[in-house]
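lol ok so funny story. i was supposed to be doing the assay writeup but got distracted and ended up predicting the structure for this chain instead. priorities right. anyway since i did it might as well share w the group, maybe its usefull for someone
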Amino acid sequence: MAVDVNRSRFAFYPENRLIGVIAGEQSARTLLDELVTLGMAETDLGVFSDDAGLRLLDEDGFGHGWLGHFERWIQSLTDEREEWRAYGEAMASGQSLVALRIDRRSAAYRDVIDAYHRAGATLIRYFGPAVIEEVD
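and the output, tada:
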């Protein structure tokens, strides 16, 4: 499986992404396998973990120049800041983020949510256009 692990670019806003926190490499692998079985493309999947994942998340944006910092500052004025903080704390404690690019209206969306739950994912959020939906 060729899933992107800590190879994403700095995303100012993860639009049309479902993100959840997974504890343990085996749980993450199980979830990824199930998502592929559900028909999700490997190119739409991403995993963020360890220090490299934290650098990509870049909670304050300083690692991505003045534009990245400005974007994170804008986000600090919204609820999105708390989402980034919670994800950063999860990765710092050894957990991983599994992200999937999916449209909320997709026929597979409900099955995908169920797969995240079966894998024991927490902090499951759907980042849509200008909205964050709490899923768990």
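The mean pLDDT is 83. The radius of gyration is 14 Å.
back to the writeup now i swear
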